[in-house]
Design brief:
It comes from Rhodospira trueperi. This is Glycolate oxidase. Pfam families: FAD-oxidase_C (PF02913), FAD_binding_4 (PF01565). The chain is an alpha+beta fold. The chain has four domains: 8-101, Uridine Diphospho-n-acetylenolpyruvylglucosamine Reductase, domain 2; 108-225, Uridine Diphospho-n-acetylenolpyruvylglucosamine Reductase, domain 3, CATH 3.30.465.10; 229-338, Alpha-Beta Plaits, CATH 3.30.70; 436-470. 35% of the residues lie in helices and 19% in strands. It is built from 19 helices and 20 strands. The chain has helices at 8-12, 14-24, 34-37, 61-73, 126-133, 152-158, 165-168, 171-174, 202-206, 240-252, 265-275, 295-311, 323-334, 336-341, 359-373, 401-418, 437-440, 443-456, 474-477; strands at residues 30-31, 54-56, 77-81, 97-101, 108-112, 117-120, 138-139, 175-181, 187-191, 215-222, 224-225, 229-237, 259-264, 285-293, 316-319, 346-349, 352-353, 377-381, 387-388, 390-394. The strands form five sheets. Strands 15-12-14-13-18-20-16 form a seven-stranded antiparallel sheet, with helices on both faces. It has a five-stranded antiparallel sheet with strand order 5-6-10-8-9. A hairpin with a 4-residue loop joins strand 5 and strand 6 (117-120). Helix 11 (265-275) crosses helix 13 (323-334) and helix 15 runs antiparallel to helix 16. The longest helix has 18 residues, at 401-418. It starts with 7 loop residues before the first helix and ends in an 18-residue tail after the last helix.
């Protein structure tokens, strides 16, 4: 995995850059000590590491604006960083770039129950938003497994999902507005406490842009009233095909659960040993299906889901009888990633999305790959929307195991595209999937995406080396090609 060659001139100016940044962010807001920098050398994709040139920790939008303007005017790259929980290397530092950390932006600015929204700084954790409004009967729907640690700004950058996104949508479906600083230092606002504006969907462009377009300094999100009733059904199956068929049948019958998750045997055992959620251990696959809404509706839907599961061969069925038991069902699922970390020195967490009908095929072929690569694989995923999270187990201290894990993961992602899916569902492209973008997009597609980046960041200072396998100069991408001495479609007005 090759990153852009460092700019030797910028590295030589490191001391001068640090002095200038200290004038903007005084006190302990600028980090240059080598040992202290190591805390920022990677994100959740820890296989790739690079100490940053400098870390700067602003605490106000004005400071962010001034830092970006200084770096723009002095040819210094910027890598934005939230909580560092990204699993695609989106916050991987560069040797010649300033890492701009937003951890000090950790305040909720406004709770507006009347308008059903919360305004928060980007460093506020996902779970903190729900905690702030739950006493008034509300919550924030997108709930990544890392919600106790991941930041809302990072959720916007990656368009994060979670176990309840099947019914309530991803970050993009719950985002109302952002304040964002462009690389030139200009502060802009998109959206807000109102209905969608007309014109270009710039909010849609920014959501999931992975720090390539600007630095988000404020987020406005939609909150929902907590449902009257919520219950979870735990369903065990003798094989993954039966569980996958149950998922497809539930959706086909018009039932949209709040969450519909699947775990295979290795993940079940790891989670049970870690959380003690009383999962059945004699099954090959486990589904967790949560229904919410009015009491009568939930009772009716649970009966229908149980009937579907029995028809598909479920060998174990249990319905939560209290909120505490429902939370315990989910605790095992949400702790699956750290639980797997207890049974393997290292693991590689993938993220691809497929059509639901392809689940049996993809799981079968993944098992075949596991045998061929000689590496175990635990599957934990959002079955309802086809978002897979295979966990490839390996030991980085064993020669070539990391390389085999990467090759295994790349083959899984290529399979996702082959069956009609996409490379990522919620973790983003970063560096992990960067060199696979050609599997999904043509050169014309990628060049058009880069033109969009150039509209926001013509100097390409923001998070370089991420997302695009081959980076073109903005001038090159904007060049018009002449045919016979004339531009194509000469009658179209040009601006």
């Amino acid at each position: 995995m090759r990153m852009p060659d460092p700019d030797a001139d910028v590295i030589a100016r490191r001391a001068a850059i640090a002095r200038a940044l200290r004038r903007i962010v005084p006190g302990e807001g600028v980090i240059v000590d080598e040992d202290a920098l190591r805390a920022y050398e990677c994100d959740g994709l820890s296989a790739y590491r690079q100490p940053p040139l400098i870390v700067v920790l602003p605490s106000t939008t004005e400071q962010v604006s001034t830092v970006l303007r200084y770096c723009h005017d002095n040819g210094v790259k910027i890598v934005p960083r939230g909580a560092g929980t990204s699993l695609s290397g989106g916050a991987l530092p560069l040797a010649d770039a300033v890492t701009l950390g937003l951890g000090k932006f950790n305040r909720i600015l406004d709770i507006d129950i009347e308008n059903r929204c919360v305004v928060a700084q980007p460093g506020v954790t996902n779970l903190a938003i729900t905690t702030a409004v739950q006493d008034q009967g509300f919550y924030y729907a997108p709930d990544p497994s890392s919600q106790i640690a991941c930041s809302i700004g990072g959720n916007v950058a990656e368009n994060a999902g979670g176990v309840h996104c099947l019914k309530y949508g991803l970050t993009t479906n719950n985002l109302l507005g952002v304040e964002m600083v462009l690389m030139t230092g200009e502060v802009i606002r998109l959206g807000g406490k109102h209905l969608d504006p007309g014109g270009y969907d710039l909010m849609g462009v920014v959501t999931g842009s992975e720090g390539l377009l600007g630095v988000i300094t404020e987020v406005t999100v939609r909150i929902l009233r907590a449902p009257e009733t919520a219950r979870a059904v735990l369903m065990g199956f003798p094989d993954t095909d039966s569980a996958a068929a149950t998922v497809a049948d539930i959706i086909a019958r018009g039932i949209i659960p709040a969450g519909l998750e699947m775990m295979d045997k290795p993940a079940i055992h790891a989670a049970e040993d870690f959380v003690h959620a009383d999962y059945p251990l004699d099954v090959e696959a486990l589904l967790i299906c949560e229904l919410d809404g009015p009491e009568a509706e939930v009772t009716h839907l649970i009966e229908r889901v149980e009937a579907i599961a029995r028809d598909k061969g479920a060998t174990s069925l249990r319905v939560s009888t209290s909120d505490a038991e429902r939370a315990l069902f989910w605790a095992g699922r949400k702790a699956a990633f750290p639980a797997v970390g207890r049974i393997s020195p290292d693991y590689y967490c993938m993220d691809g999305t497929i059509p639901r009908h392809a689940l049996p095929t993809v799981l079968k072929r993944t098992a075949e790959m596991s045998t061929r690569y000689g590496l175990r694989c635990a599957n934990v995923f959002h079955a309802g929307d086809g978002n897979l999270h295979p966990l490839i187990l390996f030991d980085a201290n064993v020669p070539d195991e990391l390389e085999r894990a990467e090759a295994f993961g790349a083959e899984i992602l290529k399979l996702c595209v082959e069956v009609g899916g996409v490379l990522t569902g919620e973790h983003g492209v970063g560096v992990e999937k960067r060199d696979l973008m050609g599997e999904m997009f043509s050169d014309i597609d990628l060049q058009q995406q880069q033109r969009l980046k150039c509209a926001f960041d013509p100097g390409q200072f923001l998070n370089p080396g991420k997302v695009f396998p081959t980076l073109h100069r903005c001038a090159e991408l904007g060049r018009m090609h002449l045919s016979g001495g004339s531009m194509p479609f000469p009658d179209i007005p040009r601006f």
